[in-house]
């Protein structure tokens, strides 16, 4: 049986600041310790902000695409982000493009997508976790999580939970070289407890194309997906 995507992990210089920012933008509650953005319903994915001393040196391999219901709603999301400490961010977008590119207080890029985007219809506030990656990695994650492929064309892939909610997408080639550890990643949980079940799940993921980095005190068992992106299994 596939693992569960237990949380997205988000490296931060100050986890409580980023959790509060994203709680304000997405209008979601934050855990009592100030480090986890809680899921309001089963379609949402908890986001765990964890301390990191690494400075951000380039664009993240993943970014959030936030949805909007109307132009007024798009403007309200942008206003909330700016009021909470975000800023406009230039990634080479043209002035006439309808989406708005922003960065959070630590420089992590995200987009507020215009209303009426058909691909993100009925996905939720975080319409997509948009990634830089190969078709192979999209198919790996479909098998690893048991989430169906909802897009697999021209080397672009996307998966979505059977419950709906956020899509995870990979844009295909050219894929930028990976120069640092992932700042936004996946935390998986084996659905059955116990060391034998955990070992069996590691074997399953390795057979699908993962590599094993071993155990770290804070992150649990750390593996690499076929594109070399770190993820943890707890």
- Name given to the CATH homologous superfamily: 2,3-Dihydroxybiphenyl 1,2-Dioxygenase, domain 1
Global outline: globular
Mean pLDDT: 93
Beta fraction: 25-35%
What is the SS-derived class? Answer: alpha+beta
CATH fold field value: 2,3-Dihydroxybiphenyl 1,2-Dioxygenase, domain 1
Largest sheet, strands/sense/barrel: 8 strands, mixed
Q: Largest beta sheet: what is the strand line-up?
A: 5-6-7-4-8-11-10-9
CATH class: Alpha Beta
Number of domains as seen in the coordinates: 1
Number of strands: 15
Q: Any low-confidence stretches, pLDDT <50, length ≥5? A: none
In the CATH hierarchy, the architecture is: Roll
Q: Give the end-to-end Cα distance, rounded to a whole number of Å.
A: 15 Å
Task: Tell me the helix content.
Answer: 10-25%
Radius of gyration: 17 Å
User: Helix segment count?
Assistant: 4
H-E string: EHEEEHEEEEHEEEEHEEE
Domain Glyoxalase-like: 8-113, 134-234
Protein name: VOC family protein
InterPro entries: Glyas_Bleomycin-R_OHBP_Dase, Glyoxalase_6
Task: Describe this structure as you would to a colleague.
- The chain has about 230 residues and is α+β, with helices and mostly antiparallel strands.
- It has a single domain (about 5-234), classed as 2,3-Dihydroxybiphenyl 1,2-Dioxygenase, domain 1 (Roll), CATH 3.10.180.
- About 20% of the residues lie in helices and about 30% in strands.
- It contains four helices and 15 strands.
- The chain has helices at about 15-25, 70-85, 135-145, 195-210, and strands at about 5-10, 35, 45-50, 60-65, 85-90, 100-105, 110, 125-130, 150-155, 155-160, 165-170, 185-190, 210-215, 220-225, 230-234.
- The strands form two sheets. The chain has an eight-stranded mixed sheet, covered by helices on one side. The chain has a seven-stranded mixed sheet with strand order 2-3-1-12-15-14-13, with helices on one face.
- Helix 1 (about 15-25) packs antiparallel against helix 2.
């Amino acid at each position: 049986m596939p693992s569960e995507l237990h949380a997205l992990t988000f490296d931060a210089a100050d986890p409580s600041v980023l959790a509060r920012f994203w709680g304000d933008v997405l209008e979601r509650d934050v855990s009592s310790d100030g480090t986890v953005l809680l899921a309001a319903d089963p379609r949402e994915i908890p986001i765990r902000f964890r301390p990191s001393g690494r400075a951000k040196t380039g664009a993240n391999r993943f970014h959030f695409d936030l949805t909007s219901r109307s132009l007024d709603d798009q403007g309200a999301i942008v206003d909330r982000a700016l009021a909470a400490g975000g800023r406009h961010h230039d990634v080479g977008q043209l002035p006439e493009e309808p989406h708005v590119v922003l960065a959070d207080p630590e420089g992590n890029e995200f987009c507020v997508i215009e209303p009426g985007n058909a691909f993100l219809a009925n996905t939720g506030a975080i319409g997509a976790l948009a990634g830089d990656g190969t078709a192979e990695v999209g198919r790996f994650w479909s098998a690893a999580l048991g989430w169906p492929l909802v897009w697999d064309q021209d080397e672009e892939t996307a998966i979505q939970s059977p419950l709906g909610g956020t899509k995870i997408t990979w844009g295909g080639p050219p894929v930028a070289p990976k120069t640092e550890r992932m700042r936004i990643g996946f935390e998986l949980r084996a659905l059955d407890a116990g060391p034998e079940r955990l070992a069996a799940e590691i074997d399953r993921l390795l057979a699908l194309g993962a590599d094993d980095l071993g155990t770290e005190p804070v992150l649990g068992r750390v593996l690499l997906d076929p594109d070399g992106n770190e993820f943890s299994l707890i």
